[in-house]
Design brief:
By secondary structure, this protein is α+β, with helices and mostly antiparallel strands. It is built from 26 helices and 31 strands. Strands 6-5-9-3-2-12-15-14 form an 8-stranded mixed β-sheet, with no helix packed on it. Strands 17-18-19-21-20 form a 5-stranded mixed β-sheet, with helices on one face. Strands 10-11-16-13 form a 4-stranded antiparallel β-sheet, with no helix packed on it. Strand 7 and strand 8 form a beta hairpin. Helix 9 runs antiparallel to helix 10 and helix 12 packs parallel to helix 15. The longest helix is centred in the C-terminal third of the chain and has 29 residues. It is globular and about 90 Å long. The two termini are about 10 Å apart. Bound molecules: tryptophan and zinc ion (ZN). The site of zinc ion (ZN) has 4 residues, from helix 3.
Length: about 900
């Protein structure tokens, strides 16, 4: 084990900054190896925070050249500098100007945090703590300052010079070929929202007129030649701007809004004030190269970053423990936006799928943490599914609990009261409590208690008295550092579906009303008695979904098939199918033979068939019915001793059985839903493609020879990237020569498009065979792969570990070794990316014993490998701990 210990940061230790920064004047002279930064900070002590405290600035990985106080050079005895801080023990107790000169190395910066180069262009990533890699600063989100940024560079290398805010001035410096631009951002901001972009970019321009009639210039910057791939992102941006005005009353505030797209980026995108920086896979799209999924993702990420302008930038976080204040709320907002742009039920299904795929396992494993944690070791590791996705669910539950009207008033109060401030989760909830005129302290527990609550439901029906009683109990399992759990305040939606398929009226026997079908659970166990219930209803539980697990319900197999056909809540209609399929899969995993459950499979197939025939359902929704639970869903559903091969085989067997019994219908769907004409990414034609491709995905399982042949035909006939990728994903899971022929032909055609090469890497990594380990090793040495590119790493290694249980969990342990070695190599270059890969080991404890031992050894070997980053060490030690 490494002897190094990394100390945690604790919420309880929060103290306001002793100094404030009123204005920042930055000059950045760009150079590939020696970028010179001069920072002029207009500061003063904050009397509220106590006087005569030392001034401690954060800084990392820089050369310190000079420090001046009010114009006077400081000598080495006036300050202390180490590898993390610059300290002035006796800073003036009056306003002063501190000037700092430093040099950093953008080209050598492989961490993609701070100032770095991507394809020869300069860009920055400052969230969470990257600004301290550019200059010494009070790098904390509650220090808000106005920034003026002067950027200088060689005009030939970097014709475009961008920073936050409005352009003040630009021009040539001298005859040397260098030029400059000065940008001014009038809105005080924390330094994590600082951005600089410089290099050779082309731009696409548009304009937006805000609700008050102001004109805003919109610009997207991309590598020259890619302008024709920006139109969808631009259209999405304008829709997001309009939507935020209409739904939240939020208007954009600067005269210009810019987006710059780069190929090397640790995450999806970043909401820097007035200058968002994007991973270019969330900007670039044209019909021939992007899938429907790409178009959907671009629309939602562009919207997400734009929405941060109010939820994140105008109102920001007091400290990083409050991350879900901006992220949970902004994810909620982008989910609502997407629901309004497309189908609301399909969006809800996609969001819950994402939550169950990532957040549920996280909440049940060694990395579980509250949405608002009280300690962390490395802030980069807090950008989790729990903070983002569960954070969004908490906002959604809150709205369900207090009602849409109160929620709307609460949001208005929040924007009004806290504009320009750095606040806490408590501040947000206080606005909601005030608007709803109720106490929300019990609800707040959701933010502090980790783990997914388990709900058991029992029913009792008395036909004579026409009384129907539901008893619900809740329990949250222990999580690391939190063994004792309290009951949560849960707004629980339900309906009672009568034999006619219609919802019954919900009247409580004590005369109480059930508002909007929502029961409020507050205790470990509660009963609700409904009256005038003329026939035994089928309970439709947890409608529209709250983040909990129903572990025990009175809903029998036939009831569930009934709900699949009749539930008035579209989400639950879909979920009834998912639960039915999962039950069948779990029997297969337990070793029950396919023959033994063929009756149940038949009934399920029949119910699926009815749903497919239902004319009231749109194709996109039907496609979701056909997408059955996968290996990861089963990993989440099984607590211990998982054999990944039997999980994989169960998935195949159920698909084969369903494909055979629905074959005629599926083939008809496949034929009927062909989309003719030129490709457009609109929801209707995307929905038709989704249904057709989902049908294909099942059809191939009916016959091991005909299936791959059919998929290959689909590949050969594909006229758009959606059909092409759908065919390839199906082929990747078959074991016939067509598979490698199709993959090779795809690579030949698209090898110059890095986004399509990433898709190709993922397809290769997902072939369910032990041989894939060798394939992935080979691809790591391929010209088209670089371990320095997070997108490549995610596409190849992330997919291998997350989408391919057969290969990753090969009984030899070779899959673990492959990932382990990659983590060690990557950790020396990009700790944040390495830590993300390390997270793929998080379910090791649930494996059967031989694999459990192998995985554990691999984790220990990485920890022993030498000097590991704080990022990776934090993750791996929690996995073992
Ligand atoms: N705030 C960004 C978002 O959610 C997240 C992000 C982008 C990020 N880049 C990062 C977080 C780098 C940590 C490190 O939109
Ligand atoms: Zn965000």
């Amino acid at each position: 084990m490494t002897t190094e210990t990394f100390h945690p940061v604790r919420l309880d230790d929060y103290r306001p900054s002793a100094y404030v920064i009123e204005h920042v004047d930055l000059t950045i002279r760009l150079d590939p190896r020696r970028a010179a930064v001069t920072s002029r900070l207009a500061m003063r002590p904050d009397p509220k925070a106590g006087s005569n405290r030392p001034l401690v600035l954060d800084g990392e990985d820089m050369e310190l050249c000079a420090v001046r106080l009010d114009g006077e050079a400081l000598s080495r005895t006036d300050y202390r500098a180490d590898d993390k801080t610059l300290t002035l023990p006796r800073a003036p107790q009056r306003p002063f100007v501190l000037e700092i000169e430093t040099v950093c190395d953008p080209q050598g910066n492989t961490t993609l945090s701070g100032l770095y180069r991507s394809n020869g262009n300069y860009c920055t990533q400052c969230e969470a703590e990257g600004f301290r890699r550019i200059t010494y600063y009070l790098d904390r989100p509650d220090v808000l300052a106005k920034f003026t940024t002067r950027v200088e560079a060689n005009r030939h290398d970097a014709p475009v010079l961008l920073a936050n805010g409005n352009l003040v001035e630009s021009g040539d410096i001298d005859a040397s070929g260098r030029h400059y631009a000065i940008w001014n951002d009038p809105f005080p901001k924390p330094c994590y929202l600082f951005a600089l972009v410089a290099g050779d970019f082309a731009r696409v321009e548009d304009e937006f007129v805000t609700m008050s009639g102001r004109k805003v210039a919109l610009r997207i910057y991309v590598e020259p030649g890619k302008q024709d791939r920006c139109h969808w992102a631009m259209a999405s941006l304008k829709r997001a701007m309009r939507w935020d005005e209409e739904v939240f009353g939020r208007e954009y505030d600067l005269d210009i809004f810019m987006i710059a797209a780069v190929p090397d980026f640790n995450m999806g995108a970043m909401e820097n004030k007035g200058l968002n920086i994007f991973n270019d896979k969330y900007i670039l799209a044209r019909p021939e190269t992007a899938t429907d999924r790409d178009y959907i993702n671009i629309e939602s990420v562009v919207a997400h970053e734009y929405f941060h302008n109010w939820t994140g930038n105008r109102i920001t976080c007091r400290d990083w423990f409050q991350l879900c204040l901006k992220e949970g709320l902004t994810v909620f907002r982008d989910q609502e936006f997407s629901a309004d742009m497309r189908s609301r039920p399909v969006q809800r299904i996609a969001d819950v799928r994402a939550l169950r795929a990532a957040q549920f396992p996280e909440d049940a494993g060694p990395l579980a943490h509250p949405a608002r944690p009280s300690r962390y070791v490395e802030i980069n590791n807090l950008y989790t599914a729990t903070v983002y996705e569960k954070g969004a669910e908490l906002i959604r539950m809150l709205r369900r609990l207090i009602g849409a009207e109160s929620f709307k008033r609460g949001m208005e109060l929040y924007f009004d009261r806290h504009d320009g401030q750095a606040v806490t989760m408590e501040d947000f909830i206080a606005c909601m409590a005030e608007a709803a005129r109720r106490d929300l302290s019990h609800f707040f527990l959701w933010y502090e208690q980790a783990g997914t609550p388990r709900i058991a439901v029992y029913e009792e029906y008395d036909p004579e008295a026409k009384l129907y009683t539901l008893t619900l109990s809740q329990e949250t399992p222990p999580t690391p550092g939190q063994t004792e759990k309290r009951p949560l305040d849960i707004p629980f939606s339900l309906g009672l579906v009568g034999p006619d398929g219609k919802d019954m009226a919900l009247t409580l026997d004590d005369g109480g009303e059930v508002h909007n079908g929502v029961l409020e659970l507050t205790e470990a166990k509660q009963s609700f008695r409904f009256r005038d219930v003329g026939a035994r209803p089928v309970a439709s539980l947890n409608r529209d979904f709250a983040p909990l697990r129903l572990i025990e319900t009175p809903v029998g197999d036939d009831d569930r098939l009934f709900l699949m056909g009749h539930d008035g809540d579209p989400f639950n209609r879909w979920d009834a199918a998912q639960i039915s399929a999962k039950k069948l899969l779990l029997s297969l995993v337990e070793g029950v033979s396919p023959e033994a459950i063929s009756g149940d499979v038949g009934k399920f197939a029949e119910a699926l068939g009815h749903a497919l025939d239902d004319r009231s359902l749109d194709p996109a929704f039907k496609a979701e019915f056909l997408r059955l639970p996968d290996e990861n869903d089963l990993f989440d559903a099984i607590d211990a001793d998982i054999d990944p091969d039997s999980v994989h085989n169960a998935c195949r067997e159920l698909r084969r059985a369903l494909a055979r019994s629905l074959l005629g219908r599926l083939e008809r769907l496949y034929d009927d839903y062909a989309v003719s004409g030129a490709y457009t990414p609109d929801p209707d034609s995307a929905g038709r493609r989704a249904l057709r491709n989902a049908a294909l995905g099942l059809i191939v399982h009916a016959d091991d020879d005909k299936g791959p042949r059919r998929a290959f035909e689909h590949f050969a006939a594909a006229r758009n990237m959606t059909d092409m990728i759908a065919a390839l994903s199906v082929l990747a899971r078959t074991d016939r020569p067509q598979r490698d022929r199709a993959l090779a032909s795809f690579y030949e055609t698209h090898k110059d498009d890095h986004l399509l090469v990433d898709k190709w890497l993922t397809l290769n990594a997902s072939i369910p065979s032990h041989d894939t380990i060798r394939r992935v090793r080979r691809l790591m040495n391929h010209d088209s792969f670089s371990i320095r590119r997070p997108n490549n790493v995610r596409a190849l290694l992330g997919a291998f570990a997350n989408l391919n249980p057969v290969a990753f969990h090969a009984p030899s342990g070779e899959g673990y070794r492959l990932l382990g070695r990659a983590i060690v190599r990557l950790d020396a270059l990009n700790p944040q990316a390495a830590a993300t890969l390390a997270g793929h080991f998080s379910n090791w404890r649930k494996l059967e014993s031989a694999r459990r031992t192998l995985a554990r050894h691999q984790i220990e070997r990485i920890l022993e490998a030498g000097k590991l980053s704080r990022d990776s060490h934090d993750i791996l030690s929690r996995l073992i701990g």
